[in-house]
């Protein structure tokens, strides 16, 4: 909305002159099949909406014009686009030669069309053999090419075709950070690569709230309920047709055995597609009461069907890309999508000799609901692409330039007119305040929001959602791409499920709370949750003293005492998620009572609450204040007053701090003798007051082999927020699929 509002204020002539163009940009969009049209249509609508900048020509070819595949060119006409040219380019056949002949036929027919249209730029999508013919024709006729979805990795011949088109294309629009890095590694010009996200996500992320029951009933029957049916979409693998046919047979057998209503879509036009259709008919799928076999479903309706399905199964890229936006479970079969980035909703069945493996996968996946994933887009791709198109200077030399190694590592290479920062939404749930921040990949807090933490569960969750929505909206204006939400909270947390199991006494009504589901449902983002001590350790590992250190421990010294343990570069959670409860290491059998109910815990000696307790005792006995100190009547006695009194020579206050430091030091010695870390990081407001006492205790009490440990004070200003952010940033940047 902001983009289009700003754009409306610009004069078309000024924009064209700025980019060296003295006429509207003539854009030719060529679409070959139902799948690529779903990606190209949002761009086409955007181009059509701005006639002051663009002229649009639509060319239709490939399976769009084949009756067996639903004559899908009609949906282009229904979208009110004028089709300039229809090219019949598919040579019917059942082997690889038919695909080669189809490419050749397209190459024969396209030059005449391009000579008549004379486009300034041609938009080509994806990795189909038809797209290769389009890119080859345009490149040889000196027409600039914009390639959508380059740089991605998948199985079969599609990989080779996609990368071949990349080398022919002059400009690239990619969907993921990994795809961008692949393009850079392929020596493409950094300034001609746009990380925009997938155009189809612009429609996906706004589609789920629409009326869907009538669509489900139309395609699957009046008796079908949401989450109680399956969508199946499987294509032949052209590099191993025989095996892919066998896999399809096993899939149908498993679906028949599973006995759920299933919508089966016909496969793409590829070598082996006719054999797959014969398998369907041999098994009676078209007449089976549990199956509905269709050639084509309009994209708007297909979105609703997969969004509310109990599961999607097959080897379509839609399963590993678009369906993740809804958290629908997916079973990806075979090798056709090998290498694709996927969300946690995807379960891979790489190979199967019987239907049992596929049937077991159906039993595991059907009916689940996963966090919504935005790996492939955030719903703002089309405005970025239109802005990119307007920036193209037709006076620049047509000849491509390649950027050969060395390639810059881990540095954003977004084009200079749309600099976006990979970021996370970080949430810190403290005993007093609730904070939300936008945190960049480099650990910079771009913007922070703070509110008092409500006392009830309902008010707290409502405020979290409100603050996260506000921050996510502001992130667009700040050119920050939000990768996910990380939450740091006190208490015991199950990070696998995103559930707070038991809270500290400082946060009320906060036990057995599922944080992941409601936040993910509202923001359509993946959500991670962990204990605040663990988050502090993660913050040190990514941004602080722990960076590159294999084994270290972080101790938080604040209102309570907590911490996290990093062992062999990984965070330790323990069998019941209560590892690193370092504040409850017992250092005295008859010490003061702790909030946990035990006695002699470190927290009972060295926490802010413990120091406040001792300060109040001194104050009640008129032994706290010394010369140079003053307190107002309404002022609450706290740990800060005890520290100030000790600095001004109050021996009783000093002794209390020494005892607290000794208790903390003994706890650290126990940690050294148990985990043997090479580094101990003291974090929190009391860290600087304890560091010397801890080192003294280590020198007196630790084994000689453990005394070499380094003890340092954290230099991070906000470890809780940075740790919550690192939950997101570490996961999204290093995950291997």
UniProtKB/TrEMBL annotation:
Keywords of this entry: Allosteric enzyme, ATP-binding, Cytoplasm, Hydrolase, Kinase, Metal-binding, Multifunctional enzyme, Nucleotide-binding, Phosphoprotein, Transferase, Zinc
GO CC annotation terms, alphabetical: cytosol
Organism: Indicator maculatus (spotted honeyguide)
Pathway(s) the chain acts in: Amino-sugar metabolism; N-acetylneuraminate biosynthesis
A GO term, aspect molecular function: UDP-N-acetylglucosamine 2-epimerase activity
Catalytic activity reported: an N-acyl-D-mannosamine + ATP = an N-acyl-D-mannosamine 6-phosphate + ADP + H(+); UDP-N-acetyl-alpha-D-glucosamine + H2O = aldehydo-N-acetyl-D-mannosamine + UDP + H(+)
Matching InterPro entries: ATPase_NBD, ROK, UDP-GlcNAc_Epase, UDP_GlcNAc_Epimerase_2_dom
Coiled-coil features, chain-numbered ranges: none
Similarity section: In the N-terminal section; belongs to the UDP-N-acetylglucosamine 2-epimerase family.
Residues forming the catalytic site: 532
Subunit: Homodimer. Homotetramer. Homohexamer. The hexameric form exhibits both enzyme activities, whereas the dimeric form only catalyzes the phosphorylation of N-acyl-D-mannosamine.
Residues bound to an N-acyl-D-mannosamine: 492, 504, 532, 581, 584, 603
Domain (UDP-N-acetylglucosamine 2-epimerase): residue spans on this chain: 53-390
Subcellular location: Cytoplasm, Cytosol
Protein name: Bifunctional UDP-N-acetylglucosamine 2-epimerase/N-acetylmannosamine kinase
EC identifiers of the protein: 2.7.1.60, 3.2.1.183
One GO term (biological process): UDP-N-acetylglucosamine metabolic process
CDD domains: ASKHA_NBD_ROK_GNE, GTB_UDP-GlcNAc_2-Epimerase
Keyword Protein biosynthesis among record annotations: no
Pfam family, one: ROK
Chain sites annotated for binding Zn(2+): 584, 594, 596, 601
